[in-house]
Amino acid sequence: MGRNAAICLTLFALGACGGGERRAGDGGPYASQVADAVPRLERSIGLKFKQPPRLEERTRDEVRQFLEQRFNTELPDSEVTGTERAYKRLGLLPDSLDLRKFMLDLLTEQVAGYYDPSAKTLYVVKGAAPEIVEITIRHELVHALQDQYVNLDSLQKSRTDNDRQMASQAVIEGQATLEQLGGINLATALPGGWDRVRQLIRDSQASMPTFASAPLILQETLLFPYLSGAEFIRRFKGHYPDVPPFEKLPVSTEQVMHEDRFFGDAPDEPTTVVLPPPSSGRSVYQNGLGEFETRLLLYEYLKDQNGAVRGASGWDGDRFMLVNTGRGDGIVWVTVWDSAVDAGEFFDLLDTGLLKRFGTMRPQTATEQRRTYAADGRTIAVTAVEIGGRPAVVLADVPAGVSADVLNLKTVTLHD
To answer: If both were cysteines, with which of 71, 197, 271, 397 could 317 make a disulfide (CB 3.0 to 4.6 Å apart)?
Structure first.
């Protein structure tokens, strides 16, 4: 997911960055591709290679070993299992999915090459199709050039703020994607733009069966840094043609997706939500969804793209907490909104979406500010509140018999 920023995949001939040697310019089977790509990239990006990266070939088994090592190093079990359990409670992942294994299978299927910042080496997978290798080398050379001017690993280690991490990854992968295409803006060059690219990727089921079977949240969060990131970099180059994008990083997917939220006179900074300890039980894992994943959640429930986009567009901050209640996992998710109108619309759409998600839901209480339901041995509550004078919506999902008032909302704090 967005948290896998240290291990980036190749999708639809997109390269990947992660973490018997030769210099990329010292001959070998890829010397001509490198010699052709380097000056073009330097002119387009406006930076010179301080030295050419090392280049090696790897078998697909060696790539799998590399990915497993990076998973163990960058994504400890506590984070993977916390994410998995929380997203299952939110209905974004099926209960039967083993997230770590699936992600390894998915990334191994996709990767055609990667740049490892720790080894300062560009790797190409043996046996990949020549046209894929060529475009992958261009993509990975961008990562090698980025790494000579900024610490790529340091940009991607915000494990407690998924949304900020995904925004940083969008800059890294978006720049590499746009440059591998020669700066072409597919949003105008291809009918249907990036949405058409997304559909082409999904249609490539024969060559990408694991990706084709992935839940929507995995497909979209893996595509986001490449496609939405490329569009963000195109805008950035238009607004700041002589400024490297790493000097003005977006801090949320909201800023990546909406031009006016980043490039306006005053960028729209997200609100930080700080949750207190739960009223009962034990906090297991915390993070946030951000506007992009909030949109995906609404779409998963509603199956209505326009409604999902509209419902998430007033997002201003969020935080969820996975709680071990003693009777099973519970989750509480606090979202903050730009206006009372935005919060009210999200409240209604979330409530409608939950009714669709749980076809057997039985209402227990229903007011303008709070809806409580029983479904599948659980209690689900949606509450509209004010926190620190700001409009907010709280979703709680707990096992039956456990209070849905997981948090004392008076002790939730907000920071601009």
So the answer is: 271
The total of structural domains in the chain comes to: 2
As a whole number, mean pLDDT of residues 381-390 equals 97
Q: Is the dihedral of CA 35, 41, 46, 49 positive or negative?
A: negative
The CA distance from 196 to 296, in Å, is: 18
Res. 1: pLDDT tops 60 = no
Q: Are residues 67 and 133 in the same domain?
A: yes
C-alpha angle with apex 293: 158 to 319, nearest 5 degrees? 60
Domain boundary among the residues 231, 263, 295 is at 263
Rounded to an integer, what distance in angstroms lies between the CA atom of residue 139 and that of residue 65? 22
pTM for the full predicted model: 0.90
Are 243 and 134 members of one domain?
Answer: yes
Q: Which of 239, 263, 287 is the last residue of a domain?
A: 263
What is the mean predicted confidence (pLDDT) over 33-50? 90
If asked whether residues 177 and 133 sit together in one domain, one would say yes
Let me know if 373 is exposed, middle or buried by CB neighbors in 10 A (0-12, 13-18, 19+): buried
- pLDDT of the residue at 186: 57
The answer, yes or no, to whether residue 163 has pLDDT greater than 50, is yes
pLDDT in tens, 298-354: 999 999 999 999 999 999 999 999 999 999 999 999 999 999 999 999 999 999 999
Report the pLDDT value the prediction gives residue 300, as an integer from 0 to 100.
97
Q: 228-248, pLDDT tens digit by residue?
A: 998 999 899 999 998 999 988
CATH number at residue 368: 3.40.1000
Average model confidence (pLDDT) across the chain: 86
Question: pLDDT digit string (tens) for 132-155?
Answer: 888 889 999 999 999 999 987 776
